[in-house]
Amino acid sequence: MKAVIPAAGRGTRLFPQTHTKPKPMVRVAGKPILGHILDGVVDSPIDEVVVVVGVMRDHVVEYVTAEYSDDLDVAFAEQETTEGLGHCIYQTREYVGDESMCILLGDMLFETDLGAFLDAHDALGDVDGSIGVKRVDEPSNYGIVTMDGDRIAGLVEKPADPPSNLAISGVYVVEDSAGLFDALGALIENDVRGAGDEYQLTDGLQRMLDAGATFGTFEVRDWYDCGRPETLLEANRVLLESAGSTDGGVADSSVLIPPVDVGEGALIEHSVVGPYVSIDDGARIEDSRVKDSIVGRGSQLRDVNLAGTLVGSGSEVTGTPSRLNVGDSSEIHL
């Protein structure tokens, strides 16, 4: 089995953080979102990964090659135009072939380890694939599953009138990969676009169901869509709580309230930091109070009181704000 990770999206919901880096490279709890996903693959039975790159591809290729090529057999497929998740997955057909695959969306994090999802898939028996699902309060925002007993009866992407509240949670196991590629290819060749005027993976899976494929589901209890600032901060809290505090920097005459992740070469002076703060390498915080925030690489904070804030890399914030979303290489004085 191969893991397939779509990492080609722009991530407009995370602007301004994604003006200068692709969405999977936004940092949370000490490393990029993509790093947390790949850590899960390393700890699973899967040792081959296909990462789909597109927007600002060099960020992804350089990071994955440097950090994971010793542990995983990594290949990179390219999505030259952003035309939906189905189109993205279709770009991996030459790398996956007819092998089974596990699709892990590049902006989703899970508390459950990948091995447990694979075990749940195996327990379903003779199926062509399975999808992780969870009941949600606002199903029109998600791909939705309807069931017939213990098998999937239908799939629809972001319906205006949802037939159920059982949402697709961003992890898929596909045994019949060739069948999925045929279905996605038919959508693209016939220009059959779905929600958002894009080629949707959900529509390709539905096409497989229409042709007689069988799909089951497994439960995903805790998952975090890191494509929005509020859920990114929520994931930061959960991951820091799980991992505990790390301190690669210097806290001079300061108080750190765990859990806090402090990167290498970071400097904290005359400040109170935490809980739930992730500080990237080389950042500097002076005379400030920071909690429930993510501070980017090489950024500088002085005389601020921040909570629920994202500060991009290489930024400078001074003054007395309480909540911000600051992109890379910005300078703000208040």
Automatic annotation (TrEMBL):
Coiled coil: none annotated. InterPro entries: NTP_transferase_dom, Nucleotide-diphossugar_trans. Pfam families: NTP_transferase. Residues 2-240 form the Nucleotidyl transferase domain. It comes from the Archaea. This is dTDP-glucose pyrophosphorylase. It comes from Haloplanus salinus.
